[in-house]
Amino acid sequence: MERSTFVYDGDCAFCTKCAEFIERRIPTRARVLPWQFADLDALGLTEAECTEAVQWVGADGSRAAGPDAIARLLGDSGPLWRVAGAGLRFPPARAAAWPAYRWVARNRHRLPGGTAACAVPSAQRD
InterPro entries, from UniProt (predicted)? Predict the structure, then answer.
C-alpha cells in the first residue's frame, strides 16, 4: 500500500461533514474516503467494521478504529494536529475517547448535519 487510508461512513451526513472538515483543514497525506467507495478487501476491512467505526489502514498495514483511527490520522498530519493526535493517544484521554466516540456514533443522527440515514441500526447499538 502506497499511502494510508482513513475510511468513514459515506451514507452518514454527519460523518461526511467531518470528512469534509478533515479534507479542508487537516493536512494529511492519507486518503479520506467513504467505505462505500473503498476496496474493503484490499484494505483488509469488512463492512461490519466500517459501519461500527471509522477505520485507519496505515501504509505499513497497521490498523486502528474509532478514536484510535482519528489519533492516527492526526498523527499523520501537520505539527499542531500531531500534538492533538498524541494527546488522544495519552492513556487517560484514550480511555475517555472510546465512550465518547460510542456515544457520538449512537447519536450521530441527532448531531448537526446528521440525518435519519446516520442512525446506527439498533442491532449494533450498545
Answer: DCC1-like
**Domain map (residue ranges) of the chain:** 5-124
Sequence-ordered list of residues with C-beta below 8 angstroms from that of 80, at least 6 positions apart, any chain? none
pLDDT in tens for each of the 126 residues of the chain? 589 999 999 988 888 999 999 999 999 999 999 999 999 999 999 999 998 999 999 999 999 999 999 999 999 999 999 999 999 999 999 999 999 999 988 887 777 665 555 665 545 544
Residue-wise over 74-102: b if at least 16 C-beta within 10 A, else e?
Answer: bbbbeeebeebbeebbeeeeeeebeeebb
d(CA 103, CA 125): 10
Task: Give CA–CA dist 40/19, Å, rounded.
Answer: 18
